[in-house]
Amino acid sequence: MNEKAQYENTAVEKREDIIFIADLDRSIRKGYLIFDLLKLYYEKGFFNEDVYNKIIGLRGAYDSEELSYQQFSPQAFEFACFGVKGQKDAQLREITDEYLKDPKNHHLYEKPGRNSRQLFDFFNARMLTLLLTASQQEGADAFIKHVLPFDYRIGGMAMTDENGIRTGESVQNLAEADTKKKASQKFIDLYNKGVEEYNRKASKTEKKNKILHVVTFGDKPEDLLVHKDVKYRMFPTGDTGKIKQALVYDGQVFTKHDSDVFQDIDKLLQELDIDAMEHLGIFKLIGKFFVQKRKTM
User: Fold this and answer.
1) pLDDT tens digits for 76-109?
2) Rounded distance, CA 212 to CA 231, Å?
3) CA nearest to 91, candidates 25, 40, 146, 131
4) Looking at per-residue confidence, does 4 or 112 come out higher?
5) DSSP symbol at 111
6) Which of 58, 94, 149, 248 qualifies as a cystine partner to 233, CB 3.0-4.6 A?
7) 131/240 Cα distance (integer angstroms)
8) β-strands 232-235, 15-22: how paired?
């Protein structure tokens, strides 16, 4: 039986004490959803032309490495919010929903060495899943509805007035430094608080588990989320090749190659009481680990 068949036919229990937090752009999905949506809104007449041209110029400066990610991405999201000022929130959501309903706009990684759907299905079967993206909230909503059904999602949020009209301002810009970490930690804290409240009223057999472990997936250092009270995190590569894959355990980055790193994964997953050998097949599909040693994360 090949690795894929073995993985697909494995019956596992979905655990509530572990959560898989995945970045979207250039991690699960090729390219940047935020720019795909800006182009869509512009072509349909829902985005200011002057603002659109400024964003294109900003993107060019980033692609040519004149701007760093932290110089580029927060500005891009603010422009994205400003460019749809005066538009109906419901209409933008409808357009976005139709766009991501079409399979040709899913843009998932589909190669044997890197397959977004297999990666998601693997983690989704075993633990809670959260999509955490700096792209627009309406994009995250449509993505989990039509592409990969994450349990939860957090996206960048634009302000809407009492009449459902976009004001041109942002409410939550997840491209800013540390905002992803703060947003995901807030989610975990609120989730665990809800579990505590539920358990106070639930019978012994109905009690739920709090989130104690986190696995993260992304293409930038900003996606390597460090949470209090958790110790397992994963940080794979994006399509730029600048950041390579690494498994992070208690702040240590394993730099071994090929089969050696899978022995480390085996050990860590055994400590989590999940059958590590079931994991190895999917990790081999993700790719090999070639990382530079870092003393601190």
Assistant:
1) 999 999 999 999 999 999 999 999 999 999 999 8
2) 8
3) 40
4) 112
5) E
6) 248
7) 21
8) unpaired
Q: What is the DSSP track for 199-261?
A: HHHS-GGG--PPP-EEEEE-SSGGGS---TT--EEEE---TTSSS--EEEETTEEP---THHH
Tokens read off for 267: 């050990």
Per-residue model confidence (pLDDT) at position 225: 55
Kindly report the CATH number that applies to the domain delimited by 3-30+109-286. 3.40.50.1000
The ranges assigned to domains in the chain are 3-30+109-286
In the structure, how many helices (H) and strands (E) does the chain have? 10, 10
Torsional class of 197: left (φ above 0), alpha (ψ -120 to 50), beta (otherwise): alpha
Task: Give every CB contact of residue 73 below 8 A, 6+ residues apart in sequence.
Answer: 62, 134, 175
Per DSSP, 177 falls in state T
Share of the chain above pLDDT 70, in %: 68
**Long-range Cβ contact pairs of 271-278 (< 8 A, separation 24 or more):** 272/18, 272/213, 272/232, 274/12, 274/15, 274/126, 275/12, 278/7, 278/10, 278/12
Structure tokens at 245: 């894959």
pLDDT(296) > 50? no
The count of residues in the chain is 297
Burial track 44-77 (b if 16+ CB lie within 10 A, e otherwise): eebbbeebbebbeebbeebeeeebeeeebbbbbb
Model confidence at 260: pLDDT above 80:
no
Q: Give 219-246 pLDDT, tens digit per residue.
A: 665 655 545 544 444 444 333 333 334 4
